[in-house]
Inverse folding.
């Protein structure tokens, strides 16, 4: 599965403000930003990301997923504290 396909799928399913996906083989890293994560436990946030990807996980297209989730406010703070190099 292409990173752009995953980004588009997550964007459509979760109405995310921003989503970034990188891949190394069939191991993917997802950074997702959206209001949908506000007030939601970390476990539930992870489940929200996994749900749209379950078909690709089940068929082996995706072997592993590393997930980071942020609300827009948390994301602004993250970018201030950890600016891109």
């Amino acid at each position: 599965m292409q990173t752009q396909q995953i980004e588009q799928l997550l964007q459509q399913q979760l109405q995310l403000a921003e989503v970034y996906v990188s891949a190394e083989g069939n191991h993917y890293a997802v950074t997702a930003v959206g209001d949908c994560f506000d007030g939601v436990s970390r476990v539930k946030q992870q489940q929200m990301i996994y749900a749209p990807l379950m078909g690709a996980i089940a068929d082996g297209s995706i072997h592993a997923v590393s997930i980071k989730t942020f609300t827009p406010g948390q994301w602004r703070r993250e970018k201030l504290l950890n600016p891109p190099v």
Observations:
- The chain has a mean pLDDT of 93.
- The longest strand covers residues 18-24.
- The beta strands are 18-24, 27-33, 64-70.
- Helices lie at 3-14, 42-58, 72-81.
